Every structure is written in C-alpha cells, then in structure tokens.
From TrEMBL:
Pfam families: DEAD (PF00270), Helicase_C (PF00271), RecG_dom3_C (PF19833), RecG_wedge (PF17191). It catalyses: ATP + H2O = ADP + phosphate + H(+); Couples ATP hydrolysis with the unwinding of duplex DNA by translocating in the 3'-5' direction. This is ATP-dependent DNA helicase RecG. SMART domains: DEXDc (SM00487), HELICc (SM00490). CDD domains: DEXHc_RecG, RecG_wedge_OBF, SF2_C_RecG. Belongs to the helicase family. RecG subfamily. PANTHER family: ATP-DEPENDENT DNA HELICASE HOMOLOG RECG, CHLOROPLASTIC. Residues 270-441 form the Helicase ATP-binding domain. Residues 451-620 form the Helicase C-terminal domain. Keywords: ATP-binding, DNA damage, DNA recombination, DNA repair, DNA-binding, Helicase, Hydrolase, Isomerase, Nucleotide-binding. GO terms for molecular function: 3'-5' DNA helicase activity; ATP binding; ATP hydrolysis activity; DNA binding. It comes from Gallionella capsiferriformans (strain ES-2) (Gallionella ferruginea capsiferriformans (strain ES-2)). Plays a critical role in recombination and DNA repair. Helps process Holliday junction intermediates to mature products by catalyzing branch migration. Has replication fork regression activity, unwinds stalled or blocked replication forks to make a HJ that can be resolved. Has a DNA unwinding activity characteristic of a DNA helicase with 3'-5' polarity.
C-alpha cells in the first residue's frame, strides 16, 4: 500500500492559500488547462500560431541589452532551427540553455524579429532516452513558491492513497448518465491522449460534467440546510394588528398594485411566525419597494418592536428618511436619522433615542451597526441594496437585535428584509439565493410611461445642450450625470465640477445645481430638496443619484461617458426619470472609440427596458462574481460549474438535493464535508 507523503509546514502554508487544508482537497484541485507533451514536432513542420513541443540542441545562447535585456537562444534539430526568447529570466535558465544542451521546449510558435520563435516556452533538458509523456500534462492553479512538480507529486500521491466513496446513489448516476466520482477525478488529473482535448478545455467531457454536478449539488444542499436551520431559530412573532398599517394605507395618495399587495402578504405572514424571516424583496426601478418596506416596519412597530432601515449611501438613506417621515409622521411615528456625517452631539442624541426605545424606526447608513449603537428592542432589520454591503456588515446589524429569551434558552433574533432594485436572473436566484425566500414586485405602478433611450455620440454634444435647454424652458427638469468627481488625466473624463461650471455658463437662463458624494450631507439634502421643489431646473450629479431619488417632474436625463458604466448602473440611473406622466428621455452620451464590451452594453440598454432581461445579459457579460459583489459578500463562488452554461445540471441538482436530504442523509453529509468544509459558514445573512 502506498504511504502518504509527508508535507512540510512551509508547503502546508502555501497549500492553504489555494484552499487546500486536507489531503482530500488535493483531489479537487483540478487542472486549469492541459499541455500535450505526448508527441514531438520537427522544426521544419512547425507552423506559426501552433502550440507544439519541439526538441533540439542549443547552438547559440546570448544575453542582449537593446532595446531591453533579453535572453535569446537558437534551437536546432536535423532539419531546421527556431529561436527561444525570454524577457524575464534567471541565471539558472541561462545555464539550462547552455550551448550543446539537448532541450525539449513547448510553447506557441510565431514569426518574430529573429524568424520563427517561441517567447517564454517551457523548457527542460533531455537525452536521447527521455520518454515522451503518455497522457496530457495538467497545469494546476498555484501560488508563489509552489511548483507544478510539487503539486503533481502531492496530487498523484493523494490519488494512490485515497479511494473516496461515491456519495451519489446509483439510481441518480444512472438517471443522469454520470460517471463515478473517483473515475472522473482520476481521468481529469491524468487524461489519456484518445480524449478530445476540446472536451477538456470547454469542460463538456462526462468527467467534468460529474464534477460540476457534484459542486452544484453541494451548493444546493448547503442552501437547503441553511434554510431549514432557520426554522429551529427563534424570532419574535409579529402578527398583523392592522392599526398603523391600515391607517397608512388610508392616507396614501395612491393604491397598492396587485404585485405590492402580494409581496406584502408574503412578508406579513413571515413576520407573524416565531422564526426569523430572511426574505429578499426584488423589484425593478420604480416598482414601489419602499412602501412595502414601510408596511413591514409598521407591522413590527404595532407589536412593540423597533425597526432599523440601512442603506449603502447617505443620499439613498436620506431619501428613505424623508419619504418615511412624510408617510409616518401623521401616524405619530417620527423616524430617527443616523449617519457618519452627523455632528457628534446629534449622533449622541440619536443613539440615546434608539437605546431608550423612544424611537421606533432608525434609518441610516452603516453607522447603524457601530459598536456604540444599542437597540432597545429590535424586531426587524431592513437592508436596501443589500448586495452593496459586506456579510460582516449585515451580520453586525443582525446581531444588534439578539435578545435573551430566558436562561438556558436560545436567544431571539430579528427578522430580516433585504431589498434590491437590481433584478436577479433566474439561474442566479436558483443558485446563490436558494437559501432565501424571494418576493418579486413584477409590475410598475399605473401612470408610469416607458423611457425613450437614445445613443448619441459626443460629437453631437451641442445638439444635446439644445435638447436640455428646450426641455427645461417648457417646465420640465433634467439630470446631467457625470461618472467622476476628481480630475483624471488617465481616463480623460469630464468631472462633475467642470461640467457644472460649463453648463452654468452654457445655460445662463437656467437654475443649475450640483450634487456629488463628497459634499457635506446637509448641502446634499438642500440641493436635492431644491431640485425636488422645482427651484432648480438642471441637476449635475455623479452616480450618487443612482438609487432612491424620486422627482416626478424630471423627464430628461443625459448620462455623460455612458460607455464607462455597467448595465445595472445605467438601468438604475435611467430609472430616475419616467416617474411622472410626461414622456421621458434618457440620452446616453458616448465617446469613441468604443470597446467591444462597451458597444455590447450600450446595445443592451438601448434595446431593453425590462430590468430582468438586462440583468440576464449582465450575468452573461460579467459572470456571477461581479454581479454578486462576491469579493465582499462572503458567498462561496463556484469553481468549476457555470450557472448559465450548466443550467441543466443546476436543475438536476435542485431536484436531487431534497431527495438526498430526506432519504440519503449520510450521502448529503459527505457532499457538504467534501465541498463546503472550507467555505464561509454564513453564506447569506
């Protein structure tokens, strides 16, 4: 029996950087790509653009210093010659490629200054007796100080020492036509030459499909377990009392849409249960999520519990504060405002009101979860644009509401309502949000008119000026959005301050305002209030107005340097107009030349107004990592599966997960241990 290799402490540290903490983790450290070292190509047969393996003798070795330091070697076989060029090299490489050495090199051939050449090929010294590889050579993800050779030895040893059981019952393997787990692992680490290389590269080979299915199944199992665990945790039961909620509905100048009524009913039912709600409320731009959040807040307040509403930016938090103050003050409920920019004395007053329970509703930014803020009796935490907060931030707010119920009993925790105006594509919801309950507001309030979108080149800027002037002179209001505040020579973008000065000069007969993220909070509020009141006709702004700003009379928006912005941001900005009955227009002012990605983004936003369609396109362009903000969200990203390309496997994994948990609990545990042992425990909070 093969004995396990001893691994030094230094190597263990390097392996941990790759997420490898147990010997079994080596099995799932799968190749990034493969190199074909199973055959040699004579130099006379090498074609430019091909990646090939060649062998010959070094007949020339020279370090050149013009135009920069490079190592150039000439490799010859019996028929022809080829140059090897290195821009970065070590003394050991000069020694390896000494004149007279027989060398085997693999790389992409191309025509260069010296003729046919390879730049930075992989080289090794050989003899006439050196055998060719019998299988494709895997290339693994690695880290500094950990060589491919070391990884290959460790993985080969793990394959010999370990023989992991296949946790997937035979009936599922048969129904889904999947190969065995260990057979798949072994093949991917040592693929034979008869396997089509393209099926390995695009991960369509049956072995890759088995690994991707297992990863998706483990993810689904983890989400199901987290979902079920909530039913064992305690939260205050907050049944609808109808006192404040009914009063608010009576004084509103509008009626709830059917979609709003439906999602509020779902949230209301969740709040009434003695287990913590974790619901994600999705609604396209302008669909009316805030009123639903207000009703949820009132239901908690009716039951004697406090509510915290947190937003990622001051301007969005302020919009919520102003709107909810307007709605709730007639009911005798006055929200408290808390943000980082408040003066020390005002912060202290707000903190005292929250701690004493004198205020029922606290609205603010991340300042709400600072250590010195204590809630008297927090029953509901509402997080807007939840994907813009890190997991630790959401956990910190959540922890504010933990209350001891009785000695030796579990502590009670607050309900959570997360909101997002960025629609989640179906596959993303199935995969990364499967542990949450999701409500969708899928209709806009009546009276909303679709926004017309126009793409206009910067060369026609003067025409755009005239369009803005004409709109403002007829009584409408307009936004002019700039992507940067500070000067940037590299990007050469118009900054907000310069644009404000330019437009003030261009439109001496218009009242122009400016708002950006670096302004004092009070100044921002004054400017936004003046614009909302119609005292300003044109507002120059950065993307701080992306969410939450509601000015029905604003019917024109110009987005400068639109090619620099992402799809979600463009859609959010466009949603600031079209909130009244007048026909609205959004002009995307772009600068040439356009990259292929920018051209695609502008085409998508021009052709679509449905946020879910745009989100789906965004997922295809950017992938789930960027869309989820995964770097700071704590979500365990998929390593091998692609939720778009592998949607069929995702569907199967969803179906199998429930049956595995109920009928094969040991298999479910094996999956979770194998795939999720090193992942963050919180996943979604």
């Amino acid at each position: 029996m093969t004995t396990p290799l001893k691994i030094s402490a230094a190597t263990l540290t390097k392996l941990a950087k790759l997420g490898i903490r147990h010997r079994a983790d080596l099995l799932l450290h799968l190749p990034l790509r493969y190199e074909d070292e199973t055959e040699l190509v004579s130099l006379a047969d090498v074609e430019p653009g091909e990646t090939v393996q060649v062998q010959g003798v070094i007949t020339h070795n020279e370090v050149l210093y013009k135009p920069r330091k490079i190592l150039v070697c000439r490799l010859q076989d019996k028929e022809d010659e080829l140059y090897l060029r290195f821009l970065n090299f070590y003394p050991s490489q000069i020694k390896l490629l000494a004149v007279g050495r027989q060398v085997r090199a693999i790389g992409e051939a191309r025509i260069g200054y010296f003729g046919l050449e390879m730049v930075h090929p992989k080289c090794r010294a050989v003899s006439d007796k050196t055998q060719l590889a019998t299988s494709l050579t895997p290339v693994y993800p690695t880290t500094a100080g950990l060589s491919q050779l070391t990884l290959k030895k460790l993985i080969a040893n793990a394959l010999e020492v370990l023989n992991p059981a296949d946790p997937l019952p035979e009936k599922f393997r048969h129904n889904l036509n999947l190969p065995g787990f260990f057979d798949s692992i072994r093949l991917l680490h040592n693929p034979t030459t008869d396997i089509a290389a393209c099926t390995l590269a695009d991960k369509s080979h049956a072995a890759w499909r088995r690994i991707k299915f297992d990863e998706l199944l483990a993810q689904q199992l983890s989400m199901r377990v987290h979902h079920k665990e909530r039913s064992r945790r305690i939260a205050p039961a907050l049944p609808p009392q109808g006192h404040y909620t009914d009063s608010l509905l009576k004084i509103l100048p509008f009626s709830l849409t059917k979609a709003q009524q439906k999602v509020y009913a779902e949230i209301s039912a969740d709040l009434a249960r003695p287990h913590p709600m974790q619901r994600l409320l999705l609604g396209d731009v302008g669909s009316g999520k805030t009123i639903v959040a207000a009703l949820a807040a009132l239901q908690a307040i009716e039951n004697g519990y406090q509510v915290a509403l947190m937003a990622p930016t001051e301007i969005l938090a302020e919009q919520h504060y102003l709107k909810l103050t307007e709605w709730l003050s007639p009911l005798g409920i006055v929200p408290v405002w808390l943000s980082g920019s408040l003066k020390k004395k005002d912060k202290r007053v707000a903190a005292e009101l929250i701690a004493s329970g004198e205020t029922w509703l606290a609205i603010g930014t991340h300042a709400l979860f600072q250590e010195q803020i204590t809630f008297h009796k927090l029953g509901l935490a509402i997080v807007d644009e939840q994907h813009k907060f890190g997991v630790q931030q959401r956990l910190a707010l959540h922890a504010k509401g933990k209350q001891p119920v009785a000695p030796d009993e579990k502590s009670s925790e607050p309900h959570q309502l997360m909101m997002s105006a960025t629609p989640i594509p179906r596959t993303l919801a199935m995969s990364y949000y499967a542990d949450l309950d999701v409500s969708v507001i899928d209709e806009l309030p009546p009276g909303r008119t679709p926004v017309i979108t126009k793409l206009v080149s910067d060369t026609r800027r003067e025409e755009v000026f005239e369009r803005v002037r004409a709109a403002c002179m007829t009584g409408a209001q307009a936004y002019w959005v700039c992507p940067l505040i500070d000067e940037s020579e590299v990007l050469q973008l118009q900054n907000a301050q310069e644009t404000f000065e330019l437009l003030t000069d261009t439109f001496p007969d218009l009242r122009v305002g400016l708002v950006h993220g670096k302004m004092e909070s009070a100044e921002k509020v004054r400017t936004m209030s003046a614009f909302k009141a119609g005292e300003l006709q044109l507002l120059v702004a950065t993307t701080v107005i992306e969410v939450g700003v509601d000015v029905p009379n604003a019917s024109l928006m110009v987005i400068d340097h639109a090619e620099r912005m992402g799809l979600a941001q463009l859609h959010q900005l466009r949603g600031r107009v079209g909130r009244g009955s007048a026909q609205s227009l959004c002009i995307l002012l772009y600068h040439k030349p356009l990259s292929e990605l920018a051209r695609t983004r502008l085409k998508v936003i021009f052709e679509n107004t449905d946020g879910f369609v745009i989100a789906q396109q965004d997922l295809q362009l950017r992938g789930p990592g960027e869309l989820l903000g995964a770097r700071q969200s704590g979500v365990a990203m998929l390593r091998f599966a692609d939720i778009e390309a592998d949607e069929d496997l995702l569907e199967h994994a969803r179906e199998v997960a429930d049956e595995l948990l109920s009928d094969y609990p040991d298999a479910a545990r094996t999956y979770l241990h194998r795939w999720m042992a090193n992942k963050h425990d919180y996943l979604h909070v």
